[in-house]
């Protein structure tokens, strides 16, 4: 109490009493009588009997979902639910009819992958409904693409490499992305080739992008342009070779939904791909996935910021040219499962997954894929 009295006395306005019974003193008088308030406080502090206990530091309560105070972006994003890894995807592409010889035998009708469409043209391929600043690389291996549709043909495998970039604007509510694919068909000498496939531009706008809940509702357009080789397909009904290569327009809707209290989330895409040439197939896509934050670091700044296993269901429904054996181009009803997981680092995200078909005819026997992205 003595220290408080001297402090009030020293800080009081000139000629103003601190207490009603206290006479007014000038600053000079006050200094001469009592010294400075700092001296008085130091003297009081030095007295063992009047020593005040040290202040107690009370930390605010935190939870796994509390906003992070670190500069670590993925850790902060995880805490505020403002980051969800992209979907892996599943689509190998489209197939067409060719007259090909097997092992030097007579030429026959064969159903083979169309390289230009095998470059990841589907909206859900390595994509998140949330606009994100990133550069990324993805690799997909599709084994034995003729397993059910043409067993007489030697197994044809598809190796797909995609380099992509995405940049946000409008306060992270919109983004523009570019996919640059390179595809290699192997296993059958008559069609073995390596070439650029069709590049895709992805425009995305989030109508809802809540960084607290992590929920997102977005829409946009995937524009796939004919940068790959032309479709060269034979139609045995007309004995004519068709050479065409349309632009693909694909409007889409994407969403992310996080559990109100927990580590579970779901995300998905609905899209329809419409070619500018009626000889090509129009396909309706529905993709949904669930993920779980299996690991979250207790402290910010750790090397690994999260481990997320995921499971995805993909339903691909043709609206015309329906069936694997349509000529010159066809598309069967396809259902695929993809499961894998992501490891999140401070700025990088690594994902590994595998996929299997769940419908007949199978358009591949199995798929293995990996993706690596850097966020900026």
Short description:
The protein has helices at residues 2-11, 27-34, 37-46, 73-79, and strands spanning 95-101, 107-113, 134-143, 157-169, 174-186, 193-196, 199-209, 216-225, 231-235, 240-244, 248-258, 264-275, 283-292, 306-318, 329-330, 334-344, 348-357, 366-375. The chain is mostly beta strands and 376 residues long.
Characterise the protein shown here.
- With 376 residues, the chain is mainly beta.
- The protein has four helices and 18 strands.
- The strands form three sheets. A twelve-stranded antiparallel β-barrel has the order 3-4-5-7-8-11-12-13-14-16-17-18.
- The longest helix has 10 residues.
- About 18% of the residues have low confidence.
CATH class annotation of the largest domain: Mainly Beta
C-alpha end-to-end distance: 56 Å
* Tally of domains: 2
Quick one: overall form? elongated
- The fraction of residues in strands falls at 35-45%
What do we call the CATH topology of the largest domain? Lipocalin
Q: What's the assembly state of these chains? A: single chain
Order of helices and strands: HHHHEEEEEEEEEEEEEEEEEE
For the residues shown, what is the average pLDDT?
82
Which helices and strands appear, and what pairs or packs with what?
Blueprint: H1 2-11, H2 27-34, H3 37-46, H4 73-79, E1 95-101, E2 107-113, E3 134-143, E4 157-169, E5 174-186, E6 193-196, E7 199-209, E8 216-225, E9 231-235, E10 240-244, E11 248-258, E12 264-275, E13 283-292, E14 306-318, E15 329-330, E16 334-344, E17 348-357, E18 366-375
Antiparallel strand pairs: 1-2, 1-15, 3-4, 3-18, 4-5, 5-6, 5-7, 7-8, 8-11, 9-10, 11-12, 12-13, 13-14, 14-16, 16-17, 17-18
């Amino acid at each position: 109490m003595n220290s408080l009295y001297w402090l009030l006395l020293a800080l009081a306005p000139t000629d103003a009493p601190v207490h009603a019974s206290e006479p007014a003193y000038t600053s000079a008088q006050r200094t001469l009588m009592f010294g400075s308030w700092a001296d008085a406080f130091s003297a009081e502090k030095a007295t063992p009997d009047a020593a005040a206990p040290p202040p107690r530091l009370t930390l605010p309560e935190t939870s796994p979902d509390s906003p992070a105070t670190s500069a670590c972006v993925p850790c902060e994003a995880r805490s505020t639910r403002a980051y969800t890894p992209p979907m892996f995807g599943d689509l190998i592409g489209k197939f067409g009819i060719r007259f090909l010889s097997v092992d030097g035998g007579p030429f026959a009708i064969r159903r083979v992958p169309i390289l230009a469409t095998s470059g990841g043209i589907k909206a859900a391929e390595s994509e998140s409904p949330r606009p994100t600043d990133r550069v990324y690389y993805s690799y997909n291996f599709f084994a034995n693409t003729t397993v059910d549709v043409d067993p007489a043909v030697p197994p044809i495998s598809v190796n797909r490499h995609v380099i992509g970039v995405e940049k946000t604007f409008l306060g992270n509510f919109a983004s523009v992305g570019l996919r640059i694919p390179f595809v290699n068909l192997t296993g059958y000498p008559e069609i073995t080739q390596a070439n650029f496939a069709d590049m895709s531009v992805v425009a995305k706008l989030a109508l809802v992008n809540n960084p607290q809940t992590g929920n997102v509702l977005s829409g946009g357009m995937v524009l796939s342009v004919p940068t790959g080789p032309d479709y060269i397909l034979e139609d045995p009904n007309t004995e004519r070779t068709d050479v065409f290569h349309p632009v693909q327009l694909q409007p889409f809707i994407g969403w992310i939904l996080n559990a109100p209290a927990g580590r579970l989330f779901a995300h998905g895409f609905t899209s329809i791909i419409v070619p500018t040439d009626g000889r090509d197939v129009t396909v309706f896509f529905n993709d949904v996935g669930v993920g779980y934050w299996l690991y979250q670091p207790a402290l910010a700044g750790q090397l690994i910021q999260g481990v997320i296993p995921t499971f995805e269901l993909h339903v691909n429904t043709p609206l015309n040219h329906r069936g694997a054996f349509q000529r010159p181009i066809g598309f069967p009803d396809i259902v695929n499962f993809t499961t894998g997981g992501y490891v999140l680092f401070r700025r990088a995200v690594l994902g590994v997954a595998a996929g299997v078909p769940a419908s007949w005819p199978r358009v591949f026997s199995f798929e293995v894929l990996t993706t690596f992205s850097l966020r900026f």
